[in-house]
Please model this.
Amino acid sequence: MEDAHMINAKAFLMTTSDNKPGVSFYEHLSKLVTSALNDICDVNSIEEASLDQKVTGFTAKAFDNLQDKWKYEADMTLAKVQRPLFEETKEDSSDNEDGHVKDGIKDLVVLPDLMRLSHYMELAAIGLPREEIFRIWLAMNELLLNEQYTIEKIRFWGQIIGISSNYYIVETDLLEEEREESESDEESCDQNPSKTSATYIDDGYYDEEVPAPDWKAPAVIPTEPHGTGANTKTYFICNEPGMEWMRLPLVTPAQISCARKIRKFLTGDLDALVVSNPPFPGKECNYLRAQIARISSGTLISGPYITPGVLSV
Model:
């Protein structure tokens, strides 16, 4: 019976306060007795010895109570994604000093000098940081080497800020346009006849035929094909340099018309729904493409103009 009481008392002393990891009273008392036997300290210095044991037993885990512990999981994940951009690949070994890609038609494509353009932007106190610009340039090189698309011309269009993540946008000219098959759910004209013969019962007798309304739904403006109009350019986006480039779909006239009437914050998710009034015909990827078309057409400089005796502008 006495052994059971001793075991229970020892187990109680070995428990830590509030069940948190740390030094138990039994462990602290054992170290204190060991120190007293080794140093042959008296009763008057037992408090100082106990304080020394607490100081020497201070670990980094107790430091969390004094200062917040920062978490770097997001930064580490992004660093792992962007690491392949800085590694030399087989495609990089075929590049020459001018930035040409020696691979068929891609030998004619040259990446723009974003660092020089960024320097001019910095003179006007605008633009992105140099490190970010360099990562964007590396990501554009990765898109250019993608065998899925044959790119004839490429340039950095800009960045659009989102709520959860941002959009980095690249404008390209595809040499071989890939036409997307769009299936429309439009109703045929036979489903909307000009006249209908309908009768209804009112107070027990039939009325004469009610004429059908003459209103007709406005004609749907067809989507312009690749390489023409608002779909002259092809746009690719990514949330961070080093992530997968995603191609934006074609923009329709109805999406551009509705985008002029609404104002929405972009979330950073291409599949997010666009809740607005009037309703937007599409998801966030379509809304983003419509806004890109509006900005591109609104900032386009026409030209060149050639006047006799004057340099071309």
Remarks:
- Strands lie at 151-160, 167-174, 201-202, 205-206, 234-238, 246-247.
